[in-house]
Amino acid sequence: MFLNAQGKKTIKKFNIRVEIENINDGKQNYKSELRTYDANGNEIEWIRFNKDGSIKKKVVSKYDKHDNKIEEIEYEGNQLVRKRVFSYNKFDEKISEITYDANGQIIKKEVYSYNK
User: What pLDDT is recorded for position 5?
Assistant: First the structure.
């Protein structure tokens, strides 16, 4: 079953766990994308496939008990490309986002602050 552009509330309401996009280019039919969701409607895995079925790109995400994304790991094929780690304050506001390269070195750090 393919469901296009479902919102998080819809995904949770109907207990959708997987979305698959298939493409027929006139010559062949192949799976182009797959999205996997947790019970709260959070996207925990996104995969884009090559025509031959191999993985072109993959993003795996983790969430905390408040449904805040705390980690995102990105792959090209099976090779780790980058990892992003997010942290939040007691109001569930994002306070930092740190991006690491494939070797674990910090390549970008963003810090957020909020007015009262």
Answer: 54
